Amino acid sequence: MSNAPEDRSGVWRYRELLPFDDMRRIVTLGEGNTALLEAPRAAQYAGLDALLFKHQGFNPTGSFKDNGMTAGASQALRLGMRKVACVSTGNTSASMAAYASAAGLAPVIFLPRGNISYGKLAQALEYGALTIQVEANFDEILKLVRELAEKTGIYLLNSVNPFRIEGQKTIMAELLDQLDWRVPDWVVLPGGNLGNISAFGKAFRELLALGFIPRLPRFAVIQAAGAAPFYEYFRRRGEFRPVTRPQTLATAIRIGDPVSWPKAIQVIDESGGVVEKATEQEIADAKAVIGRCGIGCEPASAATLAGIRKLAAAGVIRRDETVVAVLTGHVLKDPDYIYRYHTGQLEAPSGEKIRPQFANQPVTVEADIEKIREILERPVEPARG
Ligand code: F0G
User: Fold this and answer.
1) CA-closest candidate to residue 300, choices 324, 323, 277
2) Among the atoms of ligand 1, which is closest to the Cα of residue 87?
3) How does strand 186-190 pair with strand 155-156?
4) DSSP percent split of the chain into helix, strand, coil, nearest 5
């Protein structure tokens, strides 16, 4: 019932699960407290009786990164750091810029030039980060910056930072809280650098050990087909092989050499989990279905629904099981993608045209009552899905 910032935050409310003891030096923007939403139309599309979305896009900067960043930035404060840095496909940088600025730290951001959405780049600029666009992909820049951090003492706030993982654990604590501590059968999430799946696994492992829950859920990680090293690992096992030229319009998960793969493998194995991949076409259509639920999300998040549909069709997920999909980012993160999809202009990196199953074209008309009335009287096509 308290209105203290640490009790209002959907992360710090669960602070007994986190390695922080001093609430006087945390930086919070009121993160977490994200909605758990029923989506019957998406459930039907996936071939399930019901489907729940845990929408992390409802965070202050519009993605799940805020849950981890409040902890990471607070740790930077605790250590007396001045400058913090990250490499990002967009969301981490938006989040870090906001939290660092709120904490009075100087944010430095490294981005793969030309491969992040304008919404995310705009956030970094608006929140006041020194924004460096590098002519390389995410994996290459991460290597560079890890070396730079070691040499310069700049504090790195990528998901290799363990305090970010700690904060992200609370997404699962809040989910269980919302489910009255009943463990769902499945938790489904997109996989890029694999920090989130590592955090979720750690959360459930700890809550099980503490006796809050009797069992683990099964995890399903969904990757974009053009950036799917984790999927390939589970198909073949053996050695973990990075993808050298990852490609996907879901730029948030355009990652070929995910740093957290060893932890992520452990989480999949111990939970009886699975890894699936989704094509550009599947992601794009699933995203439009989530939109038609009145919910919406960014492309990477929609990989969840695309993957669930395939797993349900294959009988891996049964239609009567409880399934929670984590939507990782807000619908407005990538408006350019949305416009292109609905107007039939979206093209996969391979050059292949996406054929929108759920296109919704804007209609242009003169300022004339009769002409507008004509449009309104056209038969309305029932929304599929
Ligand atoms: N969904 C969104 C919207 C993301 O921004 C990311 C990662 C993921 C899913 C994948 O999560 O890396 O924990 O497996 N974005 C990072 C970034 C890499 O820089 O913003 P993951």
Assistant:
1) 277
2) 19
3) unpaired
4) 45, 15, 40
Position 381 scores a pLDDT of 67
Give the number of C-alpha atoms closer than 13 A to the C-alpha of residue 273, restricted to the C-beta side. Answer: 30
User: Considering only CA atoms, which of 266, 276, 251, 248 is closest in space to residue 189?
Assistant: 276
Burial 351-379, CB ≥16 within 10 A → b, else e:
eeebebebeeeeeeeeeeeeeeeeeeeee
The CA dihedral of 301, 75, 162, 68, to the nearest 10 degrees, is -10
Q: How far does residue 337's CA lie from ligand 1's centre (Å)?
A: 17
**Which residues of the chain fall short of a pLDDT of 70?**
381-385
Q: Which pLDDT score is estimated for 159?
A: 84
Neighbours of 339 (CB within 10 A): 12
Q: Choose among 222, 373, 251: nearest CA to 311.
A: 222
Q: What type of residue sits at position 326?
A: V
AA letter at 190 = P
Backbone angles phi, psi at 236, to 5 degrees: -115, -20
Q: Could you tell me the pTM of the whole model?
A: 0.97
Pocket perturbation via mutation, ligand 1, pick of 115, 328, 330, 337 by most ligand atoms within 8 A of CB: 328
Question: What's the gap in Å between 246 CA and the centre of ligand 1?
Answer: 14
Inter-residue contact 71 to 166 (CB < 8 Å): yes
pLDDT at 41: 98
Q: What is the pLDDT of residue 286?
A: 98
Report the DSSP beta bridge partners of residue 323.
186
